[in-house]
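Lecture notes, unit on binding sites. The following record was shown on slide 14. It pairs a sequence with copper (II) ion.
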Amino acid sequence: MKPNAVLLVALLVVSAGLLAAGCTAPDGDATPTATETVTTPTGTPAVTETGNVTTAATIATGGPGATFAIAADNLAFDTSTITVPAEANVTITFENRDDGIPHNIAVYTNASAIEEIFVGETITGPDQTTYTFTAPEEPGTYFFRCDVHPQQMTGDFIVE
Ligand SMILES: [Cu+2]
């Protein structure tokens, strides 16, 4: 792995050197400059590490996305399981198809529904809304339900 990485970086440096030299010196003096650059591979691994750190930081701050479309129809959700990555930015488009009946989606730590993770606004059908929230960072099986029909409309909210 490492020798290949060094070689790759060295090649990139050569290419960059040729390009830069080509732009600034059209006389043809570019070739000797590029050859000198190859003899200093000691500094190149540091550049590679810096790149990796930047990528990891981007993932940590942004979080993965998870988008769902869920409907409530005839006093039932059309899905019994919602699975998301840890700390995902969850987006649920919720459609209530029950004429004159209120529903919502609420996520709790467990079926006791004491500790809430997210409680969506209740809408009366036919209507549609979009919920957004952040999933827990701890993987596990959580719980979701409609707060208006907590016995009939329930499911597993799984964080992976
Ligand atoms: Cu309901």
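Take-home: Strands lie at 65-72, 81-84, 89-96, 102-103, 106-108, 116-119, 123-124, 127-134, 140-145, 154-159.
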